[in-house]
Amino acid sequence: MSETYSFGPFQLYTQSRILERAGAAIAMGSRAFDMLVAMVQRPGEVLSHRELMALAWPELVVEESNVRVQMAKLRRVLGCGQNGTQYIASVSGRGYCFVAPLTNLPVMRPDDSGCDDTNPDTHRCGLWRAAPAPLSQAIGRCEHLGELSRALRCARVVTVVGAGGAGKTTLAVLLCHAMREFAGATCFVDFSAVAHGPQQGAQLGETLARAFGLEIDTHTGDALTGQVLKTIAARRMLLVLDNCEHVIDDVAHFVEQLVLCAPEVRIVATSREALRVNGERIYAIPPLGLPPLAGPLTAQQAMAFPSVQLFMDRAMEGGYDAALADRHAAVVAGICRRLDGNPLAIELVASRVALYGIDGVAELLGNQLMLSWRGRRDAPARHGTVEATLDWSCHLLPASDRRVLHRLSTFTDEFTIDAAVAAAVDEGDTRGTMAVTQSIADLIEKSLIAVRAIDGKTTLRLLDTTRTYAATRLQPGL
């Protein structure tokens, strides 16, 4: 059965998780989206509150009131009741039912950028892969989006750099939808499925070719990359290269060629380290805003900060049905600070508040159990758990860097570079100092060690999640 549906002015693409109205993507929460898909796939059937809870909150125990809240949001999005339109019926004492005329489309949605192509030697822009729909609530990113937009107007290549889960892809997607000057001339390429190894060059070429609608046939990776360069050489467009860290050398080579042959193309890459190509500007994605350490904190004051807003929003999505209380304001602020304002880490931790409570989550923050807490089922595998996110980074490291990171996990607070070297070098091995120093520099570049410089003093720090992972998963012999 097709995964694409049409009803009223709406098109629903279940695989890409997009709801469109008259061709424009509509932002909505993941729980409401899951419930809509469940009802659309079983039109005319009454789905009980229990069934909807199991689909939208898998493995969690939540109150039925959460279904009603999400259903109210969904009805507002669809415009139920406006001009007599009815899409979802409420069946008293039983549940909800999708009642509108529905068409199950025979083909998937083409990724259409809306660009008209008159050059017979190239493929139409309408076959290019457009950016995904933006999240319904990209909390705290408006200022950062403005900074990134300005950076791209000043440089042809901008690399968004940050730790796993920092929100690099989210910001890149927001940029695609915000830069009106590239409307209809944007291509979004996700390299996360390209396997790290000897065949990655060929796979990278195939991924690029598919993103531009080129036929692969028996072409080699280099030939496909050459076809992509030829296709876009004379165009004015925005090209987003997402998840580049594991194929960084091949991506850097492609970008260098693109800069030379395509003067009107602007490139945004997302990676846990810089491409290090000529003309590149680095945009280190900032953490979500955090409450200050000084002074007492009320709930109202804490909720002014994006990290706390995100925490409470995801806690409520996970079934926590209470507003932030003054007595918990400092606890939540402390959790967000310990997670360095990392959005993915905050989301994964907050999703367990309904089970453990705010105090319980704070107590478990440095526990191994936290590493395996699961997020949304529709999230990429590398973002399914904290452990998976760090696996993605650490499996790319040489053994020497993993060993150094494990030894640095003994630091529970900030530390100096000299202290880091002393902790990581084998006793009596004076010749190993240079190698350890280089490993520390590499870990910093790969966003696994955070750096802070205040008043001319530079200190290093591991996120709580990274420290727990390094201490328990990077032990020698594991």
Automatic annotation (TrEMBL):
User: What ranges are recorded for DNA binding?
Assistant: 2-100
What the entry lists under InterPro entries is as follows: AAA_22, HTH_77, OmpR/PhoB-type_DNA-bd, P-loop_NTPase, Sig_transdc_resp-reg_C-effctor, WH-like_DNA-bd_sf
Q: Which PROSITE patterns match?
A: OMPR_PHOB
The record's keywords, sorted A to Z, are: DNA-binding
In this chain the OmpR/PhoB-type domain maps to 2-100
Database matches in Gene3D superfamilies: P-loop containing nucleotide triphosphate hydrolases (3.40.50.300), Winged helix-like DNA-binding domain superfamily/Winged helix DNA-binding domain (1.10.10.10)
What this protein is called in its record is OmpR/PhoB-type domain-containing protein
Organism classification, top ranks? Bacteria, Pseudomonadati, Pseudomonadota, Betaproteobacteria, Burkholderiales
